[in-house]
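Progress report, Aim 2. The chain analyzed during this reporting quarter is listed below.
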Amino acid sequence: MAKILEKRPLSPITKLYRVDAPLVAKAAKPGQFVIVRVRDGGERIPLTIADYDREEGILTIVVQEVGTTTRYLGQLEVGDEILDLVGPLGMPLEIPVEGHIVGIGGGFGSAALLCLMRELRLRGDTTTIINGAREKDLLILNEELGEVCDNLEICTDDGSAGFHGLVTERLQQMIDGDAPGRPDSVVAIGPMPMMRAVTETTRGKDIPTLVSLDPLMIDGTGMCGGCRVTVNDEVKFACVDGPFFDAHQVDFEEAVRRNKMYVRQEQESKDRTTCMKLAVGQD
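Predicted structure tokens for the chain:
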């Protein structure tokens, strides 16, 4: 069990949790994830590690309430315990020293840049984060992200904060020479359409690009096969071989199809949960 030490809302559907998990925090590295189970009989879900404090034994995760289990997790408060939290799992992200590294985050994916960009900055790289959302109320962790990088770029689709446009538009400006300069490498973490668009923006421009295929993960161990993806014409599993892969080698057509495989079942589960809450007067 992992006791919740802090719970903080970041957006209407996104919450940050700091939990007591000393063994996981001690071993965690940027790019890895944990498997969480909230209740007996509940499903196991993978959650990307946003940050860790090895000395204090504290792990930070950010959760977007989009399904049944994440909604149950959202009902837990400070002092409550997460039934199971296992990790760290997955391959740590390794980026060669490249000079100017740009991390692009969208939605809950922005949280995964916290520990990554801090580590890159500490080793001497120039770091920029492009943090994007549809509108300003959906932006998360701007203050924290600004503290772990050299340059923070804010983008909103509607122009309500920062750059008016998509993260790929701002990235293209930087590739073309706008300050803070052309990236030497790019890391994108967030929704599949955003990562795919970033991949096409950097394709053919001699800019190594990594994407996190954690949206495909289900059980996190490779046994279910739900996160199969083709990378450089080879079958890989996002949970055990990744979650980070060379973006220009990923078959995004296949990845997008696989990401939508369980949409109907997920919606049916959410509908059942809502009906049960209404029946007992909880909603």
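The chain is about 30% helix and 30% strand. The chain has two domains: 2-89, 100-259. These observations will guide the mutagenesis work planned for the next reporting period.
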